[in-house]
Amino acid sequence: MDQGKGSEKKKVMVAIDESESSHYTLQWYLDKLRDSIADSDVIIFTAQPNSDLGYLFASSYGTAPMDLVASIQENKKKVALLLLDKAKDICAKHGVEAETLTEIGDPKEAICEAVERLNVQLLVVGSHNRGPVQRAFLGSVSNYCVHNAKCPVLVVKKPAV
């Protein structure tokens, strides 16, 4: 049988970080959209933010040992992989097989680039519930994704306790 474009599995990407709201987002997605994801490829994505090593260079008078820089970057990668392993275990407990992916870069840009490159049909992100002042200074990954991702974006907001 010829498999046309209509028979392709949909790709859904859930972007996570180490926050509690991100964990809630993954749980919410698996609980509430269980029927919708049965025929979808699920990708769990996390970004490893670029290392701001300015403090390191300043404290060492401009010459940071390369093994120290490599160690910092390796630790960030380990944290990202542990986070993805935990997310994959959560998916498995819900009977969902998920692919995991991590990249280095500004999270909001890395997410949108991955969405486009992987041809994702739905992006699911959490909201940190920051106020307007914090958003102005820190930026909002979810807001950036809503406006720049090349697919529909579902923003999951954790209820206030």
From TrEMBL:
Residues 10-157 form the UspA domain. InterPro entries: Rossmann-like_a/b/a_fold, Universal_stress_UspA, UspA. It comes from the Eukaryota. Pfam families: Usp. This is UspA domain-containing protein.
